[in-house]
Amino acid sequence: MSTATRPSFELRPSPSPMPDGERAARMENPGFGRVFTEHMVLMRYAEGRGWHDGVLQPYGPLSMDPASSVLHYGQAIFEGFKAYHQTGGGVATFRPFENARRFNASARRLAMPELPEELFVEAADLLVRQDRAWVPAEPGCSLYLRPLMIASEAALGVRPSQEYLFLLLASPAGAYFQGGVRPVTVWVTEDYVRAAPGGTGSAKCAGNYAASLLAQRQALERGCDQVVWLDALERRFVEEMGGMNIYFVFEEGGRTVLRTPQLTGTLLPGITRASLLELARDLGIDAGEFRLSVEEWGQALAEGRMTEAFACGTAAVITPIGTVKGRQGTWTVNGGETGPVATRLREALLQLQHGSAPDRHGWMHRVC
Ligand code: PLP
Ligand code: COI
């Protein structure tokens, strides 16, 4: 671990801020992850020296040694969380310390150094304050924050790098899926798996996403928006989706029951997933974890017991699942329409995040 005293970030903002009109044009219909703000944060790590040279500087390309080990062996992790315009004015982020903790859990799994949680959050606060004008005010929009860490030592030996680079980018974001908030069609893949026991499924590492792209392409070729992953051992149990967790709604004896696949070590422990368990309980909904096989999914739909399914995540917020395709055929959920539970939870979550509902759990972190 680092023996260095706590570094501070040097502020080196752009001497020529972007004119308001140009920024406004870039922020129009931002979609997801296509537009970046004017600044970024960098910090370096070296074995024996710890974290150092933290700086906020203009957004721009990096210069890297082609032997940097991330380019060869993929030691790379990332996070995603958002800053929201608050109804009463100001900007706040949602549970950033949870992302800091998960970042460090990912770091441990990839044999990378941890970053003190306060530094992670301080970096985000600085960037949001600097680029505050880039936080969209439109409903359903926010500033997506993307922290990442890569192995930067120039060395081809297969071992943990002794140098790392932490980066933080910010990107104004609207809906994750093209077409806005509408029920999506998902492809249940039985050809590929995302994560096996003992693997990196619960870490947010770049390799997990690289390995998912072929299945995602297969999904698109079949007219689907996203892949649903099954467990690696039996290829039966529903785990999660490409970049989001999954929830199911059942009607049991007049009661609404909300269930999400349990964290077996192969799923990413989503912060939205965890928050929805609590928010749903606040709303009086019976919410919990379970295991669901593809056969049971079909049965529950056929018997009318499953009334809704939806995906959740920072980027996707809550996105209803309207159609399920796979080797088992094609199923429709709730007539392909957005259901009342997904709508209610989505509204409750967004109201909380935008400061128009009370923050009972102390989840919002005021930035400016
Ligand atoms: N599962 C995967 C594979 C993800 O990439 C994400 C997104 O971060 C999630 C789930 C949802 O996690 P969170 O709610 O923390 O954004
Ligand atoms: C997020 O929701 O933050 C994600 O990381 C999902 C995806 C864009 C990878």
Please provide a written account of the structure.
This protein has two domains: 165 residues, 2-Layer Sandwich (D-amino Acid Aminotransferase, Chain A, domain 1), CATH 3.30.470.10; 170 residues, D-amino Acid Aminotransferase, subunit A, domain 2 (D-amino Acid Aminotransferase, Chain A, domain 2). It has nine helices and 18 strands. The strands form two sheets. Strands 1, 2, 3, 4, 5, 6, 7, 8 and 18 form a nine-stranded mixed β-sheet that branches. Strands 9, 10, 11, 12, 13, 14, 15, 16 and 17 form a nine-stranded mixed β-sheet that branches. Helix 7 links the parallel strand 13 and strand 14. The site of pyridoxal-5'-phosphate (PLP) has 12 residues, from helix 7. Pyridoxal-5'-phosphate (PLP) binds next to helix 7.
Features:
368 residues; alpha+beta; D-amino Acid Aminotransferase, Chain A, domain 2; nine-stranded mixed beta sheet; 24% helix; binds pyridoxal-5'-phosphate; binds 2-OXO-4-methylpentanoic acid
What's this entry about, in short?
By secondary structure, the protein is of the alpha+beta class. It has 9 helices and 18 strands. The strands form 2 sheets. Strands 1, 2, 3, 4, 5, 6, 7, 8 and 18 form a 9-stranded mixed β-sheet that branches.
Task: Give the secondary structure arrangement, pairings included.
Layout: E1 10-11, H1 20-27, E2 39-46, E3 50-58, H2 69-73, E4 76-78, E5 81-85, E6 91-94, H3 96-109, H4 117-130, E7 142-151, E8 163-173, E9 184-188, H5 206-210, H6 213-221, E10 226-230, E11 238-241, E12 245-252, E13 255-261, H7 271-282, E14 286-290, H8 294-302, E15 306-313, E16 317-326, E17 329-332, H9 340-353, E18 364-366
Helix pairs in contact: 3-4
This protein binds pyridoxal-5'-phosphate and 2-OXO-4-methylpentanoic acid (COI).
2-OXO-4-methylpentanoic acid is lined by residues 80, 243, 313-315.
